[in-house]
Amino acid sequence: MQSWKNMLVDIKKIEAEYGSKLRRPASELEISQMKNNIKQKWSHIDIPNTYVEFLNLINGLDFNGLVIYGVDKVLLEKEIEEDVHGFIETNEYWYENEWQKQYLFFGDSDTSWYCYDLKEDQYVELDKPSGTLMQEFEGFGIMLDDALNTALLNVII
Q1: Residue of 28, 89, 20, 32 lying closest to 61 (CA atoms)
Q2: Could you give the angle at the alpha carbon of 30 between the alpha carbons of 111 and 109, nearest 5°?
Q3: Tens of pLDDT along 31-49?
Q4: What is the DSSP string of 85-110?
């Protein structure tokens, strides 16, 4: 399987075929503000370096049913037209259900949530909406590889 960075290159090419492009990278300031807001809201949470690396390349992704959350729109330096599924606001939304507070949500698809299980110290894919464990991953990058690979497998060109 390709790495997530290579798959982003493939996704960029596919988007270009349809006259679209990927989002711009998040700036260091935007990422820093996001980290500070996360610390204020959930002091026990650190976002993984690989997720920061992802944000440095692209501020969130919405591709073929897969959404990887980006820096929240209110934290962006420049106003943008497109929808951004913000990491903080989306986690707050999912936290309306008590059982979901066990997870830190990084993305979702039509059938899955891609999360970090805070209790088990494990990256996981959960069935959406039941919350049933589908897969465990050894790190954020491996989880991202799997999510992007699944999105690319389902592309009709």
Answers
A1: 20
A2: 5
A3: 999 999 999 999 888 899 9
A4: -BHHHHHHHHTTSGGGGGEEEEEE-S
Domain that holds residue 89: 4-153
Query: What is the spatial distance between Cα 86 and Cα 72, in angstroms, rounded to a whole number?
Result: 4
pTM flag (> 0.90): yes
Query: How many structural domains are present in the chain?
Result: 1
Distance CA 88, CA 32 (A): 13
Q: Which residue has the tokens 């920061």?
A: 52
- The domain that holds 109 is classified in CATH as 3.40.1580.10
Q: How confident is the model at residue 81 (pLDDT cuts 50, 70, 90)?
A: low
